[in-house]
Description:
Helix content is about 30%, strand content about 15%. By secondary structure, the chain is an alpha+beta fold. It folds into four domains: about 95-185, 2-Layer Sandwich (Alpha-Beta Plaits); about 190-365, Ribonuclease Inhibitor (Leucine-rich repeat, LRR (right-handed beta-alpha superhelix)), CATH 3.80.10.10; about 385-575, Nuclear Transport Factor 2, Chain: A (Roll); about 590-634, Helicase, Ruva Protein, domain 3 (Orthogonal Bundle). The strands form four sheets. The chain has a seven-stranded mixed beta sheet. Strands 14, 15, 16, 17, 18, 19 and 20 form a seven-stranded mixed beta sheet that branches. Helix 15 runs antiparallel to helix 17 (about 460-470) and helix 20 crosses helix 21. The longest helix has 23 residues, at about 190-210. The radius of gyration is 36 Å and the shape is elongated. The N and C termini lie far apart (about 85 Å).
Amino acid sequence: MAPTGPRNGAPRNNTRSAASGKSATRGGIAKRRAGGPIRVDRDGDLDMDAAAANAVGGRGKKSNPAPAGSTRKSTRTNASSSRPPRPTTKASHMVAKTLIVEGLQQSKARDNEGGGLKELLIFLERKATTAGKLSHSVRIKKSQLKGDLVYVTASKEDAEHIMKVNGFDWAGTKVHITEADDQAPNGAEASNLSAQTQDVKENLRTMLAQRYDPGQKLLNLASLGSDSLLIQMNMFQESTPQKLFRALMVICDEQFKTAQAKRDAISSVTLAGNNIDDVGQVMTLTETFPDLIHLDLSNNSIKELRGLRKWQHRLRKIETLLLINNPIDASNPSYKDELVSWFPKLQNLSGTQVRTAEQVAAAELANKPTPIPQSGPDFRDINGVGEQFITDFIRGYDMDRPTLAAKYYDDYSHFSLSVNGRSSHPPDIPLPQWGSYIKFSRNHVKITTTHARQQRLFSGTAVIQSVWQKLPATRHPDLATQFDKYIIDCHPISGLADLSGQSMAGVDGMIITFHGEFEDQDPETKVTTRRSFSRTIILGPGAPGRNPIRVASDVLTLKAYNPLPPVLGAAVANPAVPVAPQAPASAEEVQKQQMLAELCRQTGMNEEYSRMCLDVANWVFDQALATFHEKRVS
């Protein structure tokens, strides 16, 4: 059991009035009489057992008994009966249930159009469906925003799955969900309930402030059942202990809005003397303070190891855990070995040292991943094809995407985009927004269904052009003057599909992977953002009658900006390779250089394109110039 209120001296409510001489219960669900007491259990919740036990007593009003031997016929029929039929199992699932959702006003979405309510409802439905691993979608029937609270109504079955979203992160805050005692309020009742809720919150803040020691960074939640302020508020009669504890954690989340603020303010919590027998009753503690260092669970009722198992993968930074005066000491003396394996930084378990700080540091060092040594990019080009493609691709992607796609992509080309929102990045660089990219993202960690993955794999020139047009405009660093901002690998591969159908074994191609950065501009907000990217492109021979080179596959991964390693950047920008002395240029080379310069002057092409044009024409200048004009017209 979780912490409960005092038992001695609590008033004993009785539903039977001795003075009246009448039965005070009608059987089944009884209507509350004005001023009459209600029977509650020891936790303060309504006791439904008494009503159920008396349900066989009939309608509750005494009727004159039938004479002996008479055959009294009932005049009640199904049509005239005032008692509704018992609902079927299917109908019981359709009973509406109202939940209270907190967190909207503290979220980043509150400035959105409509106050972020629509985004919150979509999040709840989506997460409830995935968390419950349901074959159908969870649906919220009604929603209502009143003050700081959002009331959502769903079927009983869907509401149970929505409750599983409690504690999830959304829009920079945590969503807290509780069951409403009644339906969503209307009109004046809503404002009264909101004011009452604010009064409860204020009293809970006062109680937490009295129990907080800033010098020791200690939050003292011991013996909540005997707290005078909670007793005065009737919290143990109006709410279950689990709901009370969730409410306390909501107050803490509002007080300390970031994870760093929580670490700076509270490192120790005591829950001693709360009659806890399963940590699931106070699970929200690990959600609100996941980085706790010291925790006291002494003088509770934990009997078995399973009462602690829900924390097996939580509290990874805990160093001190006190379980003194719990029944588990007698029932399972070997439990300490198990707990040491659960918490990698645990040093003090119930006053016994189980690890030293040096052992913790050594274990962390042993488990720390060792990066693979990098010796710079491996660029194995063939006849300059890879170099020419990369130069053309980066320029075309920034300046003319439709033309780039029409040149290198065909009906069999594939393009996909993936947003990696959890990549490492410098702490002083804020995380970027992904609104312009996220709807196209094919990140398989987030997109798990086959249909959704297929929808985000774009094939064919027209489709790829359409997607590229919807992506923000970009500007990559100049490849010639800022090559240190790229790491590019290039390797030949074989076995690509032969679009001409001549080789069943496939044809040779090339795989190019380049890592770098670019700046983009959001088309709506006009905000410029710098991002890191990785792009893997597979090149193969083009189809007959098309460009000689085609893109078979293009995979783009976007991440928060993180500069390339400086060692690699310096090695790429200034390779420490001895330069051989240059031999004097021959007369043929001098003539080619002159032809190249003249063709650049007359056509306006850059040096790379002019050289390609002359190579095709076997360095016959007039033929190269004629080829240029012919291609330009076509």
